[in-house]
Write a structure and sequence with these properties.
The chain is mostly helical. It has a domain of about 110 residues: Hypothetical protein, domain 2 (Endonuclease III, domain 1, Orthogonal Bundle), CATH 1.10.340. The chain is about 55% helix and about 0% strand. It contains twelve helices and two strands. The protein has a two-stranded antiparallel ribbon. The chain is globular, with a radius of gyration of 19 Å.
Length: about 240
């Protein structure tokens, strides 16, 4: 996002190599990626009812849910990011793309596409820094998609998450991450996330598990945006 001369933010996008037939679809995906259809004022009004969140919203107004280009990318990132830092997950994702991502001719700074299910299903992922169990999980998800046992696009988020949870290696954190970052579910909340748990502690949410759950439930239907604010505040603290 860039500030305009009038002080409003806007998104400056340049598309290269996209034919007329693909522009509409690309714009639709870009709008989803940057959450451009959100209503920041309505979201802020609701979240600010929680005194712990109010200052975060005022300090960083208009935070949105950044999504991946497609849900499959979110699944891969969720599996790769299990129980490691964001920096570590970013490094491993880069290794994955370098290993099996398709090369882009004339792509400039972007040299490879993010791997698709057909690229991952039988790929050798040894040496990129993940346990063999996660490699098997990625292969299983990819095979399920290729076999059309479930679809990522055109299905409800609930159905996608039910199918994902049936695959060994996909737990509640991964499923909620996919719902939030891959499907744009505004109420998804990965409450087991370490950074979010730290933010809840720092901000003074109850230590009691049941009471804390009730406090978070009051943020519905915008718990996903609350998660973004919690991540944002912990990133700002370094």
């Amino acid at each position: 996002m860039k500030p305009s001369r009038r002080g409003c933010n806007y998104l400056d996008i340049s598309l290269y190599g996209a034919g007329p037939a693909s522009i509409k679809g690309a714009v639709r995906r870009i709008r989803a990626m940057f959450d451009l259809d959100a209503d920041p004022a309505a979201i802020a009004s609701h979240l600010c009812r929680d005194r712990r969140l109010a200052s975060l919203v005022r300090d960083a107004p208009g935070l949105r849910i950044p999504r991946t280009w497609d849900p499959f990318e979110a699944i891969v990132r969720a599996v790769l990011g299990q129980q490691i830092s964001l920096a570590g997950a970013t490094t491993i994702t880069g290794r994955l793309a370098e290993r099996i991502g398709r090369h882009i001719e004339g792509g400039g700074a972007i040299m490879r596409m993010f791997p698709e299910p057909s690229d991952i299903v039988n790929a050798d992922l040894s040496g990129i820094g993940i346990p063999s169990s996660r490699a098997r999980c990625l292969s299983a998800v990819s095979q399920a998609i290729l076999d059309r046992r479930f679809r990522l696009n055109g299905s409800t988020a609930r159905r996608v998450l039910e199918n994902l949870k049936a695959i060994p290696g996909i737990g509640p954190w991964s499923a909620n991450y996919v719902a939030l970052r891959g499907l744009g579910e505004s109420d998804a909340f990965p409450d087991s996330d370490l950074a979010i748990r730290k933010a809840l502690d720092v901000l003074g949410y109850s230590k009691d598990r049941i009471t804390r759950r009730r406090q978070i439930e009051r943020l519905s239907p915008w718990r996903g945006y609350a998660a973004i604010y919690f991540w944002h505040t912990m990133a700002a603290k370094g």
